[in-house]
Amino acid sequence: MSSDTEADTIIGRFNARIDVRLAEGSAPDDRDLLEGVLVREIGRISGHRVGRDCWVNLEVAGVDAVQPEPDHADSTAYWDGYAPGADLETTLENLGRGFRWTQYKEHGPGLELLGEPRTVLELGCASGATSLAIARTGAEVTGLDSSPAQIARARDWWEEQPNLSFVQADVLDYLARTEDTWEAIVSNWGAGMFCDPVLLLPLIVPRLASGGVYAFSHVEPLAPGHGPQVLYGNGYRGRKVAVVRWLYSPEQWERMLLRSGFAKVEVEVLPGPTPDHVGTVIGRAWAP
Ligand SMILES: C[S@@+](CC[C@H](N)C(=O)[O-])C[C@H]1O[C@@H](n2cnc3c(N)ncnc32)[C@H](O)[C@@H]1O
């Protein structure tokens, strides 16, 4: 691989042009991984983050992936308004049927995937329902979310659960500065799906106790839509709001997890309950 980088930073704006040649025989999805590595390096040097305040124009081996300069708001307002209709009664009723990692009621594995951790951090907890389900097993649970509205609702709903607390923070900022460790870190369709894994995964490993597990789930990606996907968070008519989600195949996850320092990994697509319905990517990775 060879690369030439010309970077120019103006207040709040960052432009980079990178010409990259992949070695002969590289797998097609190496491009996604490479993009992630470059973005991380550029972010590290410039102090910017892709998808939030940094966009990278990347041209790889003749594939023109140049993106226009961003002209959109970040996703905070989008997440503040997420699941506005959720109510406490229905949430408790759903929890009564048992926690699942999938989008279907009573389908797929539940909390047994975690073993019996005594301390758990949930990334992207929204209303805190998953955190509550885990706290009910007796573990000391921290639910984390960047949305002030989601954290306010979670605190309001679950204030009487003594072993459950909530933190409002961006997951990358929080993991980079905390010195705490947990026996399990989880993302149930949470921040693990909405952050660049090349940035997030290496921050998770040192925050897990020895042998601790990172467990995550997200929607099955529709091939060939692996990698970052930028969605219109505010519909097609309102103020432009970018929501970036990162979906990968089990093979891609396994490679990224191992490269990030996990010792053992298991990722699969669990099919939906009806043949040809949307499945769920469910993964676990263990710290050394
Ligand atoms: C689909 S919801 C998660 C649902 C939740 N885990 C559950 O079990 O019901 C995704 C959540 O991730 C949060 N999120 C997205 N990006 C984040 C980030 N960078 N840091 C922290 N939280 C984030 C959003 O605010 C949102 O509440």
TrEMBL record:
Coiled coil: none annotated. It holds the Pfam family Methyltransf_25. CDD domains: AdoMet_MTases (cd02440). Residues 120-193 form the Methyltransferase domain. Keywords: Methyltransferase, Transferase. This is Trans-aconitate 2-methyltransferase. It comes from Streptacidiphilus cavernicola.
